[in-house]
Amino acid sequence: MNLKKLIPELVSGLNDAGFDNNSKEIQSTSIPQIKSGADLFIVSPEGSGKSTAIVIGVIQQLKELFEEAPRAIIMAATKEKAFELEAQFKILGKHTNLRTFTVFDKGIIQYQKDIIYEGLDVLIGTPKRLKELVKINGICLAKIRMFVVDDAESYALDKYDMIYQLADSINKSQFIMVANSWNKNFAKLSGRIMKNPKIIKSK
User: Are β-strands 100-103 and 122-125 bridged in parallel, bridged antiparallel, or unpaired?
Assistant: First the structure.
């Protein structure tokens, strides 16, 4: 990973966390593509560093606090994974003023809606809760620049409606699908919401 090409605040967070220039393969190949703004499929086994690549890429793209509406949505398959991602944002983005918040099933939806309304930059959430919040106009989607779906291979085809609903409500965004393995249904997903996506794979 070429730290010289990242914002100084992010570099400081990476250094504090013990990162060096010897990044994992998926990070070295995917972060420049995230920075380019391209739609992406990032496919690599569990534990290969995909989640960290996403966190670094989002911090680099957003850079700093801006207005009230979220600019990135990350859909996590489970509550536990959502909070893992939030923890990484707090560690790697601690020298930035980016605001991150996680929403999840069975949480108090009015409280979650109120926090979103107060202002944030990155919204992380489980599919069902994100869908519920969109339904009650609890998320302003006007400023979304990045839409990331983590563990995309774990979604059954009938669950893609949750992804489509969000994608259809966003005017213009970079779409990133992150998966442990390639799924035959990704072609349908690609044709529905993505523009000439690049596929990044590592072992």
Answer: parallel
CA end-to-end span of the chain: 18
CB 177 within 8 A of CB 42: yes
For 3-201, CATH number? 3.40.50.300
Using a cut of 0.85, tell me whether the model's pTM lies above it: yes
Considering the chain, what is the average pLDDT of its residues?
91
For 1-15, what is each residue's pLDDT tens digit?
666 789 999 999 999
Long-range contacts of 84-90 (CB under 8 A, 24+ apart): 84/51, 85/51, 85/54, 85/55, 85/124, 85/150, 86/124, 88/51, 88/52, 88/55, 89/55, 89/58, 89/59, 89/122, 89/124
State which amino acid sits at residue 84. Answer: E
Q: Rounded CA gap, 73 and 137, in Å?
A: 15
CB proximity list for 152: less than 8 A, separation 6 or greater = 177, 178, 179, 183, 186, 189
